[in-house]
Amino acid sequence: MAELTDGGPTAHHSYPCEQCGANVEFAAGTGTLTCPYCGHAQEVTPVGGAVREHDFAALAAMQRPAAPATHEYRCGTCGAITTSDHLSQKCGFCGSPMVAEVEALGLVEPEAVLPFDVDRASMQGALQKWVRSRWFAPSALKKVVSAEQAHGVYLPHWTFDAQTRSDYTGQRGEHYWVTETYTTTDSEGRSRTETRQVQKTRWYPASGTVARAFDDVLVAGTRRVMPEHLAKLTPWPLEQAASYQPDYLAGYETLRYDVEPEVGLDVAKQEMAPVIENDCERDIGGDVQRVHHVATSYFDVTYKLLLLPVWIATYLYGGKPFQVLVNARTAEVVGQRPWSAWKITFAVLAALVLVGAIVWAVVASQDGGTASVVYSGLAYSRPALLGGGATRESVGFYADPGL
């Protein structure tokens, strides 16, 4: 199905339909390349073999050439040349899908990909549910559900495995109780002596060694998406990842990594650190623990580059861009949202009116049920309990008919 261009701009895969000659794209959730015009579908042929981890020491020792900031695509359909820093995208002139040949760019090649499973219709349904749950959001937020506002993107991530050995020093705290005597004054001003139990802690020096194996510590390989949003898209079903196959990228954008693997490993170690510290605390034992110093050694460190699928919708409100992400495997939605000032103001005013009505009702009930009626600018009251005719008397402000 895929064709590989040669010569000229960077080699890349193109995807003409075998039946009608149009362009096919990977159809989310189907495992097929499908033509949007004639409906012809062909199964994506797995490349075979299990997803592998690669030795990080070998990568670090390798002299990797600097990858070019951008590369060029020559569209196999219309011949247009596009300059881009994406691994895959659509031709800006005719919309044909193009997937770069990664090896030709001098980049670390993806080992695995988690293919799109949530299609556009399901993505829109997830966005609609998310939008409805945003209280005090402006009506403009509904525009994010529009099909034209979202595009499918594969985001690069590093995963790291490691065996760790950590030597620590710290303290173990053990609680004990003592009886404390104190003086207090009662409500009549008399002093008396009482006792109470007070918890105290004895601290003892502690040291030891803990070991742990880490598997698939996930680190974002791109800085183009806010890391706090990516973190909220977890967990990812990484066990469902398939060996990298360019066909999965057809019809979607794929970002190149801009976080080098060495930087990614440093971030992974930061993710491992609190887990290791918890191991140290458990090893110290006692009632409470203090960890003063941890020295960790890392062994058998491996890595892989993984592509994860995300729907990204960006919209403008008040001249400011807002971004919403949809996990294209679980349909989890996270993102930024603006607040509607007038909706918040209306809600506050409505709450004040409600509180005022409740207060009025309480005061009226405590006032013996007296009801007041205004006639011709004069206030009349009719005692609810005493009966009798209405009497003219002022119960508050009233308007003078002569004004």
Salient structural properties:
single chain, 13-stranded mixed β-sheet
Characterise the protein shown here.
The model is unreliable at 370-403 (pLDDT under 50). The protein is α+β, with helices and mostly antiparallel strands and 403 residues long. It starts with a strand and ends in an 11-residue tail after the last strand. The strands form 4 sheets. Strands 1, 2, 6, 9, 10, 11, 12, 13, 14, 15, 16, 17 and 18 form a 13-stranded mixed β-sheet that branches. It has helices at residues 56-61, 120-132, 227-232, 261-284, 341-366; strands at 3-4, 12-14, 25-27, 32-34, 41-43, 54-55, 71-74, 81-84, 86-90, 97-100, 112-113, 150-185, 191-220, 242-243, 253-255, 288-317, 320-327, 333-335, 371-375, 378-382, 391-392. The chain is flat.
State Rg: 34 Å
Shape: flat
The string of secondary-structure elements, in order, is EEEEEEHEEEEEHEEHEEHEEEHEEE
Largest sheet: 13 strands, mixed
Mean pLDDT: 82
Helix/strand layout:
Layout: E1 3-4, E2 12-14, E3 25-27, E4 32-34, E5 41-43, E6 54-55, H1 56-61, E7 71-74, E8 81-84, E9 86-90, E10 97-100, E11 112-113, H2 120-132, E12 150-185, E13 191-220, H3 227-232, E14 242-243, E15 253-255, H4 261-284, E16 288-317, E17 320-327, E18 333-335, H5 341-366, E19 371-375, E20 378-382, E21 391-392
In short:
This protein is of the alpha+beta class and 403 residues long. It is built from 5 helices and 21 strands.
